[in-house]
Write a structure and sequence with these properties.
Layout: H1 6-20, H2 30-41, H3 45-56, H4 62-81, H5 85-97, H6 103-110, H7 116-129, H8 135-139, H9 147-165
Helix pairs in contact: 1-2, 1-3, 2-3, 2-4, 3-5, 4-5, 5-7, 6-7, 7-9
Amino acid sequence: MNSALRPSLLALPILAALLASPVRGQSVDPLLVESYRDALRVPDTALKIDVIRNLGSLPITPENEILTEALLPDLVEVFRNDRHPITRREAVLAISSFHVPGVLPALYEALASPDANVRYEAVKSLALIGDDSSLDPLRTAFTDSFPHVRREAARTLQAIQKRSTRPKASR
C-alpha cells in the first residue's frame, strides 16, 4: 500500500463514526470528543477540512454546544498552527458558528493571525455575530496590510454600529 494514502484510509472510519454519532443527553461522550480531536490531528488535509465543516454545521442543541465548547481550543490550535491555509480558514468559519462562551476571544485572536485569509474570515465572522463588544478589536483591522481585510473591517464596523443603534424589537 502506498504510504501517502495510509493516513487517509486509516482516518476514514474516524470520519464515518463522527458523522454518524448521535449526541444524546445533557453530556457528551468523552470518546466522541476524543474522536474529533484525533480527526483534527490527522495529516490528511481533506479529512481535517471535512471534520471542521461538520463541526461548523452541527445544529444548535444543548448537547452540541457542550461538544463545540470542548473542541473550541482544538479549533483555535488549528487556525494558529495548521500548515494548510484552507484548513486554518475553515477552522475560523466553524468557530463562528458555535454558540458557546469563548467564541469572541477566539475570533479576536484570529484577527492577529499572520494569515490574511484567517484575519478576513475573523472579520466576516464578527460581522455575522454582530456583538457590540467587537467594535474595538475590529478597529485594529483598519490598519491591516491587506486591503480586503481593511474593507471588510469597515463594512463590519458599520453593520455592527447600525445594528446597535436600531431600536430593539420587543418579543
